[in-house]
Structure formats: structure tokens, C-alpha cells
Amino acid sequence: MDVRFSLCCLLLSILASFRCFSVVYGDANLTKSSPTPINRDLYHSSSDLIEEIKSMVHRHPDKLTIETMKTANKGYEAEITVVTYCRSRKESDDRSKFRILLSFGQHGRELITTELALRILSILSEEQFLPKMNRATLDSILDKVTVKVVPMENLNGRKLVEAGDLCERRNVKGVDLNRNWGVDWGKKEKDYDPYEENPGSAPFSEPETQIMRKLAISFDPHIWVNVHSGMEALFMPYDHKNVTPEGLTAHRMKLLLEELNKVHCHKRCMIGSGGGSVGYLAHGTATDYMYDIVKVPMAFTFEIYGDGTASPKDCFKMFNPVELTTFRRVLNGWASAFFTIFKLLPDQLDVHSKAAAATSNLDKSVSMDEYLDGYLVERRSRRGKKMEVIEVGMQEIRTYFRLFLLSSVLLLFMFCSRISKGSRQIVSPMSL
């Protein structure tokens, strides 16, 4: 009896221990695999951020203007807010100023980039100031530039992230906007990820990239910066091949990045071409298109933060600071880096350098398809007035245009054939 009782007690103890172990181990695994949620105390929602920017523009009509650019493709609609900074609005089209185009939030999960856009606009509007730059220096810098800021390029994708899909980088259609541009589009490497890097059905198939291309061609910037997160890096072209451009301007690009790395990254940032530095090639990217087609003299991709210790499934932590100290450090440090660019720009470029490179859209190798796609975009100004555009399906226009060219070639061929036949009838008797 005692033996049986002892065995029963031992068995119960083992079962209890196993149960405790399972609970503790299971809880530990649950804690370990649970992704970090969005810190709502640090990060604005997409709607709140856009509203705060609109309010800022309303408070500073002498410096800031805002417009919303919209377009649609096959039932999918997108809109992009664009803020323009110029110290005197009357001079916003002054071609003697350096033109700078900055894009943030191209990938929805990279929330920190849109917060940086807000910080830069706050400094431009003089609601906030850089700690190590006096007012007179800032004024002298800003007198020379016109800056267009796209605070959230991928608004629809951002809303997916806010709804709980914290790893989403694509737009609502599942297309990676930084693979949907026209340079080397659609090429797939051996490590190609069809989920993460879906380039879309064709170059510029997505409304977001159509809008951004139109904006870039019309603004004709001297500098383009596409801001991302995931690591700390300062990239120049190219993304689709393991080389950097040659020439004086390319050399100056490298010098500028080295200065930024020294002063602001404290030599932590990776520098070089995107394709040569990251370990993989990316095809159809915005920066390569800006450099090769739009002929932007200085085109960059900046990666402003990354947590290499985070689990690949813990995307919010991997791409965004999760505590206040790091959050402030990232925003203050990178905002300073952008104003260093504004300060050094006159020493790096001639404001008229673009005129020599390209004087028209044709000089920039913009095709008929790109021209039509880029310019038939609905725009809405800050006061809500729509600018009229031709609402015609782009596919139909391209089809009719190509049919017209084919018909013209056939008619020309038939005409030449008749002339040739007639000439032989007249000439042959004379030769006898």
C-alpha cells in the first residue's frame, strides 16, 4: 500500500512538474515570438500626421504650400501629399534656386521615415530648430533652396500596417513601389522574393509611381533623396548593378556621403552603390530612374535606422525605434544631416547644371508612354480646386498610337512600292 501511494505521489509530481515546465516554456516562447506593436505614444497615425502637416502649412502660408496629387489605374486609386517649401512663395518657380525632392514612407512599415519628414518640415517652417545651427546660418541656407517633401508616398500600404500587418512594405495591390520604376524593371535575381519584391505588371503600373514620376519630371530637381529604414546607410546609384557612376558629379556625390557619414553617422553608415553595398541587386528602383532618366545630378537612397538584433518577424522593432531616446536621436541626427546637404549643395553643384544636362523631356529620354502616364494625373490644390485633365485610359491611348504608327508604316511601304513599280516601266525602254 505504501509503495503504491509513493508511486502515485511520484507520478503526480512528475506530471505537475511537466505541466509547470510546459506553461513556463510556452509563455516564454509566446513572449519571444510576439511582435512589438506600434508605439502610439511616439508615432502618429497616417491621418494624424497628414492633418498635422496641413495645419502647419496653414500656419505658415508665406513659406509652405501643399497639394494632393491623385490618380487611378484599373479601379485602384492612390493619392500623394506634396509640401513645397520656399521662403518667398512668389519665388517658388525661381530656377535660380537649388531644387530638392525628398520622399518618405515608400514602404509602409517604415514609420520612422514619415516622422523624419514631419521633423524636417517643422524646422523649415521654423517651429523647431536644430541645436547646433544658429538662425542666421539657417536663413542663409534656406534662401538658396526650394524643397518639395513627400511625407508619405505609400499611404495605402501604411494603412495596412496600422491595421496590424506590421511587415507590409508593398501597396494595397501587393506591389513593391521601389521595384516598379522603369530602369531595368522586372529582372529577377537568384534570391528574388516574389512576395517582398513584386515589381507589378509593368513599369509604372502603380498610381503611386506614376504620380512620383510626374512630380520629378515637372520639378526637375538637383537632388533626390529616397528615405528608408532597415539599416544605417548612405547609398548612391546604382541599385541594379554593382558599380557607381563616373565623372566629376559622381565624385562629388561620394565626397558628400563621406562627409555625412563622418559628421552625422559617426562612420557607422554603409556607403556606396546600393547594388554593391547591400549584398543584392535591386531592379526598377526610384533612385536609378531619377539618376538615369530624369537626369538628377545627385540621387541618393538613405537608410536611417535598423535594429539588427530584432527577429525577422518583429518588423516594427526591426525598422523603427521603439523607445523615446533612440527615437529622438534618429530624428535629430538625420534632420541635421539633411540641413548639412542644403548647406553644402552650393559647393557641390552649379544651380544651372541641369540646363546643360537636359533642356526638355525628350533630352531626358522620356518616352511617349512615360509622358502620357506621367501627365494625365488628377491634381487637387490646397484649396480643393481640381485641375482638369483628360480622363482617358492609358492602355487605349498606347494601343491607338501604336496602330497609327503601324498603319503609317504600311501606307508608306505601299506608296513606295507603287513609285518603284512605275519607275521601272518608264526607265526600262530607255535602257534598251
Helix and strand topology:
Elements: H1 2-33, H2 46-59, E1 64-73, E2 76-85, E3 98-104, H3 111-124, H4 135-142, E4 145-150, H5 155-162, H6 207-219, E5 223-228, E6 231-236, H7 248-263, E7 270-273, H8 274-277, H9 286-292, E8 298-305, H10 315-319, H11 324-348, H12 353-357, H13 368-375, E9 378-381, E10 386-387, H14 394-431
Parallel strand pairs: 3-4, 3-5, 5-8, 6-7
Antiparallel strand pairs: 1-2, 1-9, 2-4, 6-8, 9-10
Describe this structure in words.
With 432 residues, the chain is α/β, with parallel strands linked by helices. It is built from 14 helices and ten strands. Strands 7-6-8-5-3-4-2-1-9-10 form a ten-stranded mixed β-sheet, sandwiched between helices. β9 (378-381) and β10 form a beta hairpin. α6 (207-219) crosses α13 (368-375) and α7 (248-263) runs antiparallel to α11. The chain is globular.
Oligomer: single chain
Strand order across the biggest sheet?
7-6-8-5-3-4-2-1-9-10
Structural class by SSE content: alpha/beta
Arithmetic mean pLDDT: 82
Give the helix proportion (percent range).
40-55%
Question: How many DSSP helices?
Answer: 14
**Strand content range:** 5-15%
Low-confidence residue ranges: 14-31, 356-393, 424-432
| Radius of gyration based on Cα positions | 28 Å
Instruction: Kindly state the number of beta strands.
Output: 10
Biggest sheet details: 10 strands, mixed
Shape: globular
Task: Give the topology string: H per helix, E per strand.
Answer: HHEEEHHEHHEEHEHHEHHHHEEH
